[in-house]
Amino acid sequence: MALPLSQLPGEIIREVRGRKWLALAVFAIVSFGVLALGFIWPYKYQSQVVIYVDDENIIRPLMEGSAVTTEINEQASSAQQLLWSRNVMEQLATNKDIFGSGAAELSNAQIEGRVQWLRQNLSVETQGEDYFGIQYRSESPQQAFKIAQQLGQLFIEESSRRKRVESRNAYEFIDNQVKSYERQLSEVEGRMKSFLSENVDGTEQEANNRLANLRSQLELAQLDRKELNTRVNSLESQLQNVSSTFSQKQTVDSFQNRIANLQDQLDSLRLKYHDSYPDIVILEEQIAELKRQRENALATGADLSRTVQGQQIVNPLYQELSAELATVRTNIAAVDTRINSLDALIGEQKQRMERIQGNKAQYSDITRDMAVNKEIYDDLLKRREKARVSMHLDVEGQGLNYRINESARYPLTPSGPQFFQFAAIGLFLGALAPFGAVAGLLQIDPRVRAKAQLEDEVGLPVLIEIPKVRTPFERRRDHRVTLAVGVSAAVVAIGYIAIAVASVMGAL
Questions:
Q1: Which of 33, 41, 82, 174 is 20 to 30 Å from 367 at the Cα level?
Q2: Structure pTM?
């Protein structure tokens, strides 16, 4: 039955008073046990290197947009992953300054075990926004100091090497891509050159413009032909109403006037036509005839003022209309020739359009490939120059850098619980151990120790509780035992303290 909590302190004190020597033994065992644990506890010494992440130097604003500086996110996690890398751990595991001259002669299994041991005792913690610490714990203070110091140096060397390798790999990758696109662009340009040399029909727009121009010229020629046909019909209608010759009574003196008029007409026609033109030939014959008639008249001695009757002469209006009709018909023949030529050219242009439409898809593919490759090529050229500047920045140690802000220090005291803490805790636990043990036993003890247990749990009424009565002899004996236990506890405590102080002072 569980003892009520209100009566638990009294029962604990009563049980401890009844078993004083057992309580003293528990006190001594627990106290010296904790003290012995303090003697054998594996104390570890810790040394730390504080690294500063310098990403705000003067180069960064100057090269903004022209170069990409390496950025580090989650500094502590990335730093620990870098230090845990096989390259760093093996360098540290075979370091002769730390592990002696035989460190480089270890087998693969021994190196693997040492690498695991190094990783277990290594930790990286963030210390502010731009700082993190590399910590190492070891049972040897000298070993902890040397390993921490070496870890700081290896971290900076490895991070710098990785930055250089990363920037160089990025530059080489982009450079290879640039060369690849140079070859592709050259191939596409060659295809375009070959296509244009084989297909000289031009573009669809040029062909459309040419076809529209030819059609407009054809329409104008057809309009000109209609106009000329109308003029021909009009001239033919006028010629039907005009006589080709007429009779005129004239004096001999009029020969000279007629010759002069015909000569004027002849000169006018010679400005437009050759001498073989029919109208010119007719005029020359008429002029020659008039000259013969005049010479005959003068030779016979006839009166020059005498009138000559029945003379048939060419009608000048008829002659002019005939000349104009011949000119218009000649123009019609020229316009017909031009229309036929334009029809032939339009047919050829349509065939050209069909060829252009057939080559349009191929031309579009080549043009699209050239545009895409050119765009990517220009972008890669810019990125390659940025990568080149970034690579030089990393080679020169600019951009993001790590600096040792605080070097490793030789640890003078171990980290974690100290021996004097074990000593203090041991004395305190030893004093509480008897009471704690009795309290635990009372909770599991099935015996009835108070009337409240019967009344509350069993439900039986208790009429009276008889207290324990001791005789004077029992009281004197208990007093002697208490005195002896007190003296023994004081001796145990003094011895405990003496041992603890001697160990702290270095006497043990």
A1: 174
A2: 0.44
